[in-house]
Amino acid sequence: MSTRTRPSRLAALGVLLVTGSLVITGCGNSKSSSSGGGSAASSAVPTPTAVASLAALVPADVKAGGKLVVATDASYAPNEFKDAGNNIVGMDVDMAKAIAQTLGLTADVQNATFDSIIPGITAKKYNMSLSSFTDTKEREKSVDMVTYFSAGTGTAVKKGNPGKVDATDLCGKKVAVQTGTTQADTIKGTINPACTKAGKPTIPNDGDKFDLQTDVTTALVSGRDDAMLADSPVVDYAVQQTGGQLQTIGSVSDTAPYGVVLPQGTDLSKAVQGAIQSLMANGTYKAILTKWGVQAGAVTTSTINGAAS
């Protein structure tokens, strides 16, 4: 999952390191479990009815199949993960199902590694993806992004912070991240160059990278790493699901929108945007976020390709 988070907060951290003015812009809440999933929330989500005007926007080839093939990296609880029965569940999964129902379709949610999803969209392997993708201008060069949620970057450490990690100064600390995320890119492209410029040791190996977010959390719980960076809902959930073995430090900042990933330039993007707005209007959107305890990330408007950076 890429950030799954936008680079601006971590880029700002690099500037702070160079100037020596370390302001707390820390990190925060998130959702990732060391075991690969907590239990699904029990709150009921209403089943939306199809909206004919939006269903009419669905491309003929997609409509003929009767379903949306949706890719997600099911290792990022509570947004997308596998429950005890090995079912793919989470906020994004419920959102995908509700979008499909609004368009008169069903959702076929398929597990995929995060860094394979956008190539899969462009190759037409999947119709869309909800997988905690932050909407960025770079991503918009190859796919459409339809916004639906807002999240920032969070930092977690072991309870008591034995490594004495400062969320605003990660130089020299062992930091776990998921492969392909913005957090991973920013360690390599911004934080470590800033550490070098400030005469400080860098984060080893440009971060300790794992294909699954669950393995990132496990690396921190086991003491292999001093800290982990992930999206704020994921960090909060990891703290909750690891039974007090972890804690957050700093504060969530530089929030940015998540986007549904879609092929560029088709009416499906307009259909999905309209579906999200419909879900916001009829209460389904709020019910989904409340079910998974992530209502703090609610937005009021969905846009197509609205990235600020």
TrEMBL record:
This is ABC transporter substrate-binding protein. Residues 67-296 form the Solute-binding protein family 3/N-terminal domain. It comes from the Bacteria. Pfam families: SBP_bac_3. The keyword Signal applies. The keyword Signal applies. InterPro entries: Solute-binding_3/MltF_N. It comes from Streptomyces tateyamensis. Keywords: Signal. Coiled coil: none annotated.
